[in-house]
Model the fold of this input.
Amino acid sequence: MSLREQYRIIKFADFGDERGNLVVIEGDGMDIPFDIKRVFYIYGSDSEVVRGSHANIETEFLLVNVSGTSKVRVDNGYEEEIIELNKPRTGLYLSNMLWKDMYDFSPDSVLLVLASRHYDPDEYIRDYDEYLNIIKRKKS
Ligand code: TYD
Done:
């Protein structure tokens, strides 16, 4: 599968009016392809910090910088791409089995993450060589 099929930029509806903005993300195939099982958010990371650096065997993710900006590097073992997150209305969908790094956090960055699975440390691959071995084994 090409990298382009493994991630997607998704724009969400904004029901903003004179009172302010309201952005809605519905799960279960409505706005994003999965049922949302877990929500977490990352803030207060310095600009030189690199987070993530793992792949997930099962979990799919949706990332939104609801405040500030950050960058996400996605890598499928063959290709890589860097996506900048800088709009509260725009999310990045990531399929499972993608290697990802999050970095270049602005001081006001709040990175909201929606996940398709509950947390399970056993489905994280944190060693890049191990990730590559799994990917290359799958292909052959
Ligand atoms: P980590 O996976 O290093 O976060 P990131 O990939 O965003 O840099 O997680 C940091 C710690 O938080 C680690 O001890 C595991 C824990 N954690 C949970 O318990 N549940 C979760 O959903 C997440 C994302 C992390």
